[in-house]
TrEMBL record:
Stretches of the chain forming a coiled coil according to its record: none
Descriptive protein name: DUF1129 domain-containing protein
Domain of life assignment: Bacteria
Entry-linked SUPFAM superfamilies: BH3980-like
Keywords, sorted A to Z: Membrane, Transmembrane, Transmembrane helix
Positions of transmembrane segments: 94-113, 119-139, 159-183, 189-208, 215-234, 246-264
Amino acid sequence: MVVEEMIEKNNELRDKLTPENKEYYEKILLYTRFKGLFGDDEVIETVLLNILYDLLDAQESGVLAEDYFGKEPKAYLDELFQEMPQVSLSKKLSIFYMVFGISSGFSLFSTLTQKNPSINSLTILLNGLISMLLVFSVFKYLEKMTFKVKKQSKMIEYIVVFIMGLLLMASYIGSVVIGNHFLSIPIPLYLSISVIVIAMTVVSYLIIKRKNKPYYSYLVFGWGITLFTTINRLPQTQKWFESEPIIIASIVLILLGSFLAAKFSQKTILKEDK
């Protein structure tokens, strides 16, 4: 059974759990997937399915999940992780390569959409490293918080997310400022527009081909940003964006578009998860 089939089977069987058992199991599921970020997906999903089968058997016998695995299943799960086969270093690093690639793409997009477009190697490198550190930190944080009491974790969660957001924003701004002074290669305006359009076309093709529905809204948003930045930089239409009301309206629309894309993506993921 391939990973996708196991996830689908997990989603299907999870609906057979009672509300209490389902809440309990979903904490196990989240903790295992967060902790298994650098593990073998097939092994992780197999473990999750086996635990789910055990819980369903216990439920049929009238035993609650909490009584079957205990109130704190974290220790049991940590033991399971110690028994799992070791994953090769190259496979562990593959997640970093993916994050670095995505971050580099966004960094390149941001430098190419400036009024004086350039390819900024240092900014791309710094943003890639920052993004990898962020992904690792977020997953570690979520792993630690999975079994925390909700009343205690909510306030801490908001504070941590706020601080991480500030640090991330400061890091990205700092990388752009530093990068603009070193290893920056200016390129012609129309070449930068062509690169962006080609890149968006390739990304759109891959997402549609793989039927990644949660990302469809981001495609629409991405093409909207591409159109906006192109109009904003063309000599013939640049003056349209010089007035203050237009600038404010543009910022509001971009923020609104980003929010709607995220909400639509979240709803799609939840629908597919059921």
